[in-house]
Amino acid sequence: xxxxxxxxxPSLPRLAAASLIGTAIEFYDFFVYGTAAALILGPLFxxxxxxxxxxxxxxxxxxxxxxxxxxxxxxxxxLGDRRGRRPVLVVSLLLTGASTVAVGxxxxxxxxxxxxxxxxxxxxxxxxLGLGGEWGGAVLLTAEHAPAxxxxxxxxxxxxxxxxxFVLANGLTLVLSVTLSDAEFAxxxxxxxFWAAGVLALAGMWLRSSLAESPRFLEIDDHARVPFLxxxxxHGRLVLLTAGALAMGxxxxxxxxxxxxxxxxxRLGVSRTVMLMCIMGAVVVMGALTPVxxxxxxxxxxxxxxxxxxxxxxxxxxxxxxxxxxxxxxxxFLAVLGALLSFVAMSSVIAxxxxxxxxxxxxxxxxxxxxxxxxxLGGALTPVAATALAERSGxxxxxxxxxxxxxxxxxxxxxxxxxxTRPVPVPAPVTG
Length: 432
Fold this sequence. Notes:
Layout: E1 3-4, H1 12-39, H2 41-45, H3 51-82, H4 85-103, H5 109-112, H6 115-143, H7 151-179, H8 182-187, H9 192-208, H10 215-218, H11 227-267, H12 272-300, H13 302-324, H14 329-356, H15 363-380, H16 382-392, H17 398-417, E2 424-425
Helix pairs in contact: 1-3, 1-4, 1-6, 1-7, 1-9, 1-11, 3-4, 3-6, 3-15, 3-16, 4-6, 4-9, 6-7, 6-15, 7-12, 7-14, 11-12, 11-14, 11-15, 11-16, 11-17, 12-13, 12-14, 13-14, 13-17, 16-17
């Protein structure tokens, strides 16, 4: 374990707030697409497909964003390790916001034919590029300002951003679902959350324009010439282990927030309003508990929290699908809540854990590439695989539960092979 002398940084609350708001906006952009893919994109952009094939195709475009994220990590990681963490926050937010607004402007298949899904794919790829850079910049700016003994706590605030972004995206979709007819929602209502991303992006740019650069970056004397090559050469095993370790978190989160929405509305006949409320309620609880659970990571270590969360996810996957299959709102809420409470034990400390695994000169690249490769392994295929498995299952989609539990076992092994990084406080000198 590293021995790090604690520092005090009076601007931490402001930094944490700006990082949280920024990640909330970025993940709003990413999540609003996932919700649209589950509810409406299949019929609008793949109308020649069967309902199942259209959903699979829509989830396929959803997966493209995950594939783009590691590439975004390489590009923005290079910028973050060479020029600073702060520029990453501005450029990534601009790229993601612009591409999200553009998605809301793409005509449907009925208007421009095959060009519609092609444009959707391209914009989803650009959206993924931006988000691939966002996480590294936002997390590092907070983590590298934070005192060692409370780094997990302060670094957890950017991790609250995805929950806030999800609630914003789905809350707006929920309001539109309730106030518009199905025809109005299909014609133009689904586009409104994408257009709103432009306003949010401008607000985020204003908030981030005056943030201070990371003190750890300013202390680096020998910047890596090509950070990605150095990461591959010297930290390749670490990147693969972190990617495998994080696959579980992505798989669980997107199974809950994306696949379960499509499954409940299409297979079980649950109204989208009811299912959105179930998922949003569970995400609110998860977001509120994130800093609380993160403080345990400062006390007991990052690795034990991650191992505990992974094990809990594995054990909960089969009960989760059994509860979901009932179609009863309260039981469905308990299903997703249990999954997200297990997930938060890992997600709350990962923003401190990953940066601590890498030396500062390649930290932005290494941490972000490992984080976003985990998204490819766990997030890109999960909605597609779960939809296909549920279709082949009986009343209870046991195949989905087994698939998720299998990913969890892989992640558990990867976390077991990673070292602990919790800093050991330097004792105060004895005087007198």
